[in-house]
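Protocol step 4 of 6: record predicted structures for both targets in the notebook before any analysis. Target 1:
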Amino acid sequence: ASKTYKPRHIAIGTNTDPYQPIERKFLLMRAILPVLAKYNHPVSLLTKSALIARDVDLLAPMAEARIVRAMLSITTLDPKLARTMEPRASTPKRRFAAVQALAEAGVPVGVMTAP
């Protein structure tokens, strides 16, 4: 990066979920997060996937640097309704477990309701 580069906040997951099922195979977020950390680039992650907890080892140091926050969308607590509305998303129970794992690692995390 240029010496004059001043990072501005990036929001990942506003249009499409960065932790879709195929992320398990391609590991794109595991490649992107270290680059953001290296350049001290602030980022917000929005997802419906508990897979975000897989990256807690990358997110925790970013949280210490105050450059990351995560939001998990939970539209219902009813697992059957969730499966109907969001067939490829993690169950509400798994999303809450991810929220807990991130919070315990010091990652600023919240819950939202979004389609």
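Target 2:
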Amino acid sequence: MNNKSNFLIILVGLPASGKTTFAFKLKEKLESDFHNKVKIIDPDIIRDKTFPNSFDFKNEPKIREKNIQSVRKHLIKEQIVISDDLNYYSSMRHDLKLIADSLNIKFYIIHISTPLKLCIKRNKERGKSIPNKVIKNIYNKFDNFDKYKWDTPFETFDITQTMDEIQFIKILSRKIALNLQEKKEIKEPLRYKPSASIREELDLITRKIVGELLKNPKYHVSKKAILEYRKAFIKSRSDEELDSKKILVDFKLFLDKKLKG
């Protein structure tokens, strides 16, 4: 191939699923095929640099923020970026999607679907200090890919079904190149997206804002009203008015006005 493009790869999988090994093999193939630098963004490395020799859940929002900033920074440099994170919530994947959308580049969700039992076995074999209960907890909280069209994996790699990882990566690289060629035509602005896609954006963004708001105990008494305000906001929006940034700003203003009113 003689392509020089940049795009975002969003890896999704449990701890000890083999994501990092997959990421490095994929990096090598993509750099060869696309003649472009590939940057792997690993939040574990960010965590170790920012808070060495310690782990505290209170630090995770800052780690997540630095992770997102790093993805954006390297995409702006026109590099190919691989997000080597768990990305087990659809909201995590959506944050990455928004970066790709804002830069008008393609993103590809790759699900490393290693079964839970095998992840636990691998975790034990490699002598890492991830408690099994943490892996099981992430497994139980994992958001499946059946709610939003954009959240459908481009490819799924299951080592129990596909033993030849190198061959899988070769085919994946080829499929990405073909997909990029098919999508070279200029995209329409977000406000002209199909109605179903816009409604998905509305649902996810407003749901996320409400979730963050309700983390504050002072709003618990108003939970029912806030949920009704969200429904009213979604119902009041017309397709011509919407894009991701406008949804975010308008809904925050809408809620602020209602809660103060």
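Step 5 preliminary note on target 2. The CA atoms of residues 191 and 240 lie 6 Å apart. The longest helix spans residues 195-213.
Proceed to step 6 after PI sign-off.
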